[in-house]
Write a structure and sequence with these properties.
It is built from 9 helices and 6 strands. By secondary structure, the chain is an alpha+beta fold. Strands 1, 2, 3, 4, 5 and 6 form a 6-stranded antiparallel β-sheet that branches. A hairpin with a 2-residue loop joins strand 3 and strand 4. Helix 4 packs across helix 5 and helix 8 packs across helix 9. The chain is elongated, with a radius of gyration of 17 Å.
Amino acid sequence: MILIDLINSISPISKEAQVDLQNMLVPRFVQKGTMLLTQGEVCAHLHFLEFGFAHQFEWKKKQKQSNYFWEQHSFIAHSVSFLTQTPCLENIEILADSKILSISYEDLQKMYALYPEFNVFGRLMVEKYFVELANVGALIKIKPAHKRYEKLFAERPQLFQQASLGQIASYLNVSIETLSRIRGA
């Protein structure tokens, strides 16, 4: 299983933990356009994106403002809502037909309680996500816009194959016209 292999490559867990985790995971195929989470809901599940593509967005002036993307082998959740079990302020949408493995907040807490080695993996994933979010915040501060584009393209070129121009433009906080000019230069 891809997820177990990933976990073990980062911080090995016991065979018992692997079995319990597999029993708690709920696999499902999700079609493009499916909302995994909408504003105001509590994020009750952590999802592993076995394959597919998703983004987190908020509505601004009746337009979707993308503020995070997930690609295959990523963990999907609204971090604040999931960790605090409070309503979220953004939405999570599947952008390509996907397969996800989901675990509830309660079952994840059981895994942490039963298997101390699983805590190490959880901490490392939270640290990785924290760094990624800091990098996203830093990206938006880069001026001028073409430098933001160049940095994003250098760091995540596959994003340009999966996201629409509109989604990339909103993520970079530029208009579609500005993004087109940058790409044409």
